[in-house]
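Hi R.,

As promised on Friday, here is the backbone we talked about, encoded as structure tokens. Could you run it through your design pipeline when you get a chance and send me back a sequence?
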């Protein structure tokens, strides 16, 4: 188990020096983060990783000498204890490349451009367990505004709700990535929101046609019909090409059923129900 109440050593690997500097500036807003290396090619990256044994590696995929995939392949052969958290931060959104990076040990995949203000928090959430990471981020992060005592309880309740939602969104992203849902599909974002909303729904399942599709359509400025079709396409894709071991944790998966994926409603509600039991009930 990782310990989050210590300095976290980070290596930044990106062929763009200016972008690497932006990443470094973002991470320096959290004193708990210590940048132990900033490198611009894959070969040097492997050497620095072996030398410093960082806690976190921020890795681009497009680099000279050795690309990010080659770096992941080499890191995989090295014995680390504990294993560093590897966050791929790249402009490549190709489905096959995403699957390859995750299969080689990447813990999280972020597609550029990405809001640099969110990067430190994402690292804390991925590095440690959600509850402790959130607590430490508040402790080490940017200055916290003192609450108005009259509204302290309301603000506290609202903050707690926002924190639960943010953590749940991250958790659902990881579930979808582990299942093998291609992150570049429009249905990926719709699925994530559908599962999050159903997981947070206290009255059971949100009616999918009358409420859920219109809610997602409004959030993404599209139509309910497009939401339904995109989710159906994403489910078909993961059912045929996704991680069967992970799928079997949620569904009865067999070769006979390979061409008969769950309905949108079944897929969303099954994952949401399991999240309620295993994650939100903690």
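Update: got your reply. Pasting your designed sequence below so it's all in one thread:
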């Amino acid at each position: 188990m990782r310990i989050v109440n210590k300095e976290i050593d980070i290596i930044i690997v990106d062929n763009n020096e200016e972008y690497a500097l932006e990443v470094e500036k973002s991470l320096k807003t959290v004193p708990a983060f210590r940048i132990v290396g900033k490198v611009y090619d894959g070969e040097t990256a492997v050497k620095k990783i072996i030398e410093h044994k960082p806690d976190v590696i921020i890795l681009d995929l497009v680099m000279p000498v050795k690309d990010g995939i080659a770096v992941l392949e080499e890191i995989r052969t090295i014995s680390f204890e504990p294993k560093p958290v590897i966050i791929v931060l790249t402009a490549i959104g190709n489905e096959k490349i995403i699957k390859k990076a995750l299969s080689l040990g990447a813990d999280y995949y972020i597609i550029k451009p990405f809001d640099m203000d969110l990067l430190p928090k994402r690292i804390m959430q991925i590095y440690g367990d959600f509850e402790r990471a959130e607590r430490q981020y508040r402790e080490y992060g940017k200055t916290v505004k003192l609450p108005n005592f009259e509204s302290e309880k309301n603000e506290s309740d609202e903050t707690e709700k926002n924190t639960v939602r943010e953590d749940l969104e991250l958790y659902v992203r990881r579930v979808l990535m582990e299942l093998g849902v291609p992150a570049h599909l429009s249905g990926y974002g719709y699925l994530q929101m559908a599962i999050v909303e159903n997981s947070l729904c206290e009255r059971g399942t949100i009616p999918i046609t009358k409420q859920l599709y219109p809610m997602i359509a409004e959030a993404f400025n599209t139509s309910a019909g497009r939401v339904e079709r995109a989710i159906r396409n994403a489910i078909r894709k993961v059912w045929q090409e996704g991680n069967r071991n992970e799928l079997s944790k949620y569904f009865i998966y067999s070769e006979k059923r390979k061409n008969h994926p769950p309905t949108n409603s079944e897929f969303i509600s099954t994952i949401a129900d399991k999240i309620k039991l295993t994650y939100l009930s903690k």
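One thing I noticed while checking it: Strands lie at 8-13, 33-39, 56-59, 85-90, 108-111.

Thanks again,
M.
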